[in-house]
Amino acid sequence: MAVTDEAIEKIKGMIVSGALRPGDRLPKESELAADLGLSRNSLREAVRALSLIRILDVRQGDGTYVTSLDPQLLLEALSFVVDFHRDDTVLEFLAVRRILEPAATAMAAVRISERQLDALTAQLDKLGEDPSVEDLVACDLEFHRGIVHSAGNSVLCSLLDGLSGPTTRARIWRGLTQEDAVARTLREHRAILAALRDRDAEAARSWATVHIASVEQWLRSTL
Fold first, then answer.
1. pLDDT bracket for residue 103 (50, 70, 90)
2. What percent of the chain has pLDDT over 90?
3. Which residues form the signal peptide (predicted)?
């Protein structure tokens, strides 16, 4: 095992075991290196790597701390990684989204508040019946993010947030080239919202599946 990898594993072990907890400050570099049997250089490289993936927070002049380890913070790295996707993998991202998002939408049906439902309705009303493709896609992202957030699972919310980026360009492309794509998307949004208002989890799941599958089906036909 490379020296830096060994250092990373040892710090990880301290966090997983509870020796270091969220918000804790790491011991001084010289002390921690001696305790772990590491060189200061390898420890420094490990800290740098773990800070990049939001495990550690290096505060200049103050020290190094364990972050909150909140799923949304940790999964920011996913958003960074998926930005490197190739165009031929967009269908794979859509397939994963089609598995996860309908489940999240069904969960939201029994948890979403009337205030949140009213906010989603206002969002669609503000968009109007003939929005630009760019405005529609921006609204689409916020619409689904609001629903998934209401499902009450921060890990699921963060995963879907990270997966939404690669499909944005495909949705814009569809809106510009497929006849009736804008109107169809608006109808599907209204249907999802109606199912949520009815607290009908299975209808919400079905409409969310239809909504994502329609983009996937169109993209398959154009590639």
1. very high
2. 51
3. none
The answer to whether 202 and 106 have CB atoms below 8 angstroms apart is yes
- Global pTM? 0.70
Report how far residue 211's alpha carbon sits from residue 18's, in angstroms, rounded to the nearest whole number: 43
Cα separations (Å) of 11 from 7, 43, 50, 190, 206?
6, 9, 9, 49, 44
SS3 labels along the chain? CCHHHHHHHHHHHHHHHCCCCCCCECCCHHHHHHHHCCCHHHHHHHHHHHHHCCCEEEECCCEEEECCCCHHHHCHHHHHHHCCCCHHHHHHHHHHHHHHHHHHHHHHHCCCCHHHHHHHHHHHHHHCCCCCHHHHHHHHHHHHHHHHHHCCCHHHHHHHHHHHHHHHHHHHHHHHHCCCHHHHHHHHHHHHHHHHHCCCHHHHHHHHHHHHHHHHHHHHHHC
Token digits for 17? 């075991």
**Could you tell me the maximum CA-CA distance found in the chain, to the nearest angstrom?**
66
Mean pLDDT (whole number) for 91-101: 87
